[in-house]
Design brief:
This protein has 143 residues and is α+β, with helices and mostly antiparallel strands. It is 24% helix and 36% strand. The strands form two sheets. The protein has a five-stranded antiparallel β-sheet, with helices on one face. Strand 5 and strand 6 form a beta hairpin. The protein starts with 5 loop residues before the first strand and ends with a strand.
Length: 143
């Protein structure tokens, strides 16, 4: 048997104008899948920064608001002096914690050339320390 595994890699760039945001990146990932030509395989999508997340959930604005309120309760941005990490001169300790809860990456099965989602599943970029250029890695392997 001869395996003809394809491999595809792309970086998606974001510059969010606010400190925090949730962005549906499913269309960009679907475009990557199209470019890869993979019909059966796996798609990894991960944040390349330790103050941002990639996660899967519903594209519903009320839910995103609820996430933001919940994350602010768990790890409030202010007062920045409450965090030892911020003694380094940074002010983003809360962003590191929010990223940890919301996760670094997702893996989606590829079946018949499509992302094999469950009901309502969409891929999001979660920004917790924006206003600068940051990247998401898309890696697709399969045949
Ligand atoms: Zn930091």
């Amino acid at each position: 048997m001869i395996l003809a595994m394809k491999s595809y890699r792309k970086e998606l760039w974001f510059e969010v104008p606010s400190r925090r945001a949730f962005i549906n990146i499913t269309p960009q990932v679907e475009q990557c899948l199209k470019e890869s030509g993979v019909r059966e395989g796996l798609c990894l999508v991960n944040a390349m920064h330790i103050t941002a997340s990639v996660f899967i959930n519903d594209d519903e604005s009320g839910l995103h608001h609820d996430y933001d309120v919940w994350l602010e309760k768990l790890a409030p941005h202010e007062p920045v002096s409450a965090y030892r990490h911020n003694r380094t001169g940074e002010d983003n300790a809360d962003a590191h914690m929010k990223r940890q809860i919301m996760g670094r990456e997702v893996v989606v099965a590829i079946t018949g050339g499509k992302l094999d989602f469950g009901p309502w599943e969409q891929i999001f970029y979660g920004e917790f320390d924006g206003r600068r250029r940051k990247r998401v890695l898309v890696k697709i392997i399969g045949e």
